[in-house]
Amino acid sequence: MSAITRDEVAHLARLSRLALADDELDHFAAQLDQIIESVARVREVAAGDIPPTSHALPLTNVFRPDEVRPGLAPDDALAAAPAVEEDRFRVPRILEEEA
Amino acid sequence: MTTPTLMPYDEALGRFEPVLGVETHVELGTASKMFCGCATTFGAAPNTQVCPVCLGLPGSLPVANAAAIEATIKIGLALNCSIAEWCRFARKNYFYPDMPKDFQISQYDEPLCFDGYLDVEVNGEVVRVGIERVHLEEDTGKSLHVGGATGRIHGADYSLVDYNRAGIPLVEIVTKPVEGTDRLAPEVARAYATELRELMRALGVSDVRMEEGSMRCDINVSLMPRGSSEWGTRTETKNVNSLRSIERAVRHEIERQAAILADGGTIIQETRHFHEDTGETTSGRSKEEAQDYRYFPEPDLVPIAPDRAWVEELRAGLPELPSVRRKRLRSEWGVSELDMQAMLNAGAVEPVEATIAAGATPADARKWWMGELARRANESGTPLAELAVTPAQVARVAALVAEGTLNDKLARQVLEGVLAGEGEPDEVVAARGLKIVGGDEELGAVIDQVIADNPDVADKIRSGKVAAAGALVGAVMKATRGQADAGRARELILEKLGAA
Ligand SMILES: [Zn+2]
């Protein structure tokens, strides 16, 4: 049994806004399956008493003081925008409802 | 927009019981953003408070704002929550241009604070609203939709985005389902939001201005048939942005859902939008097609493990909470909860408190702020606290009345003068010549004349009809053009006519 189904890959592609053709789906599903199986090997050595790790460093509570620091000049901020209008990022219309 | 069929509220409540839930977003009043040093000033020119971190530029890394963590723990403590020993931020992935990173840093299954409650008072009864969780996240940018219907997304040709707000620390406070509110569900929802707002103010963590969006409420409502204990399908009404709208939105959803259920229909679990103008809600995106946010622990931020000693220090440093303060002021001022609520709604509690501190009696302070000044604030559309009169000036006017220099009518003229920028109360009194008609001698002369002019009335009073004195007091006030102490005039009249 594969670790990830073709349907799941199609779902992920949709969430990631990737338009994949049918043959691409087959191709990536197989590749992702291999990757997941490789990573899953970690599970073989992980015992029940070892909690899953989300961070590589054993650090907690790294904070910064609440101080204002200069940001980008407006021109720099907007430099990478696909289009600019009224000092705002102009983007294609959004079909979904407001989040 | 089709007008939905509604069931009259009383009928709806006769057949169904509402279950309520409120999700509130509060923007924290920190100087800098949640994960970067950008300023958070409201109303700045578009995209002038942005940097590589909050624009999601490659290679940038977030670092959590210590003040935001502290504020969130304070909120949790004030809401009687447990504070997590250890928790993480999480990425909430979604494609929407209001977040340039294509994800929002939030918290998922490990909120910073959880399992608390807030007591609210409705019609003199205490309702305990359970708090499920309080977590920390970042606010999104603001989109302006151009073309199509103004401001709405549907029909927009394109959107213009300002990222000044993106990354401002946002606290989300989620209630547990509230049952048993019965017909008071709309009032309970409103009272909860009101109390929460007062609490945020007392903690000093946010300016909680609903009209500017620094406090926003989403309202969950479901109905269950009377006698059933199984919750119905709920709807979530988004961004209800005034206290009054909260009440209206809950009421509308109850009437709308009841009509559908009674007709044999089913409620769709969906997001709905409240319309301020009509008081109705309309369908937004339905939960069935809701997004899969693929939450996972945020790898760029290390876990938070609040030191217990620090948490206890914050607990010890909490200010007097609003409900406790109200109870104390109520007993100190000798007012009912209803009067206190009226003062709260009018924004009069602080001015009254300051006026008492400046020497006025609680009754006088309340009388002026809730009477004449509230009326003038109302007329000019100014918040009470922003009227051009200080608590010390109000206290001085009250003192002038108490010592007999002014009566209420003259005092109102003095306040008018102060509000018009004519100076301190004493200056207005002098400049406008507003002194009461002086001592007993001066007043006595006026009274003698009035008695001589009204022999019939005087006879009535002599024969014991004390109530008739009112007519003579009126005549005295008229003769002095209102500049007499009516109480003293009455005493003198009765004395002179042997009826005292
Ligand atoms: Zn920034």
Question: Would you give an account of this structure?
Answer:
The complex is a heterodimer of chains A (99) and B (500). Chain A has 3 helices and 3 strands. Chain A has 99 residues and is mainly α. Chain A has a domain at 6-45: Orthogonal Bundle (Histone, subunit A), CATH 1.10.20. Chain A has a two-stranded antiparallel sheet. Chain B folds into 3 domains: 9-312, no CATH class; 320-432, no CATH class; 440-496, Arc Repressor Mutant, subunit A. Helix content of chain B is 39%, strand content 19%. Chain B is built from 16 helices and 15 strands. In chain B, the strands form 3 sheets. In chain B, strands 3-6-7-10-1-11-12-13-14 form a 9-stranded mixed β-sheet. In chain B, helix 8 (349-357) packs across helix 9 (362-380), helix 8 (349-357) crosses helix 10 (391-402) and helix 10 (391-402) runs antiparallel to helix 11. The model of chain B has no long low-confidence stretch (mean pLDDT 91). The interface between A and B is large, with 39 and 67 residues. Strand 3 (88-92) of chain A pairs antiparallel with strand 9 (158-162) of chain B. The site of zinc ion has 8 residues of chain B, from loops. Chain A: It catalyses: L-glutamyl-tRNA(Gln) + L-glutamine + ATP + H2O = L-glutaminyl-tRNA(Gln) + L-glutamate + ADP + phosphate + H(+); L-aspartyl-tRNA(Asn) + L-glutamine + ATP + H2O = L-asparaginyl-tRNA(Asn) + L-glutamate + ADP + phosphate + 2 H(+). Chain A: This is Aspartyl/glutamyl-tRNA(Asn/Gln) amidotransferase subunit C. Chain A: It is an enzyme of class 6 (ligase).
In short:
The complex is a heterodimer of chains A (99) and B (500). Chain A has 99 residues and is mainly alpha-helical. Chain A is 40% helix and 9% strand.
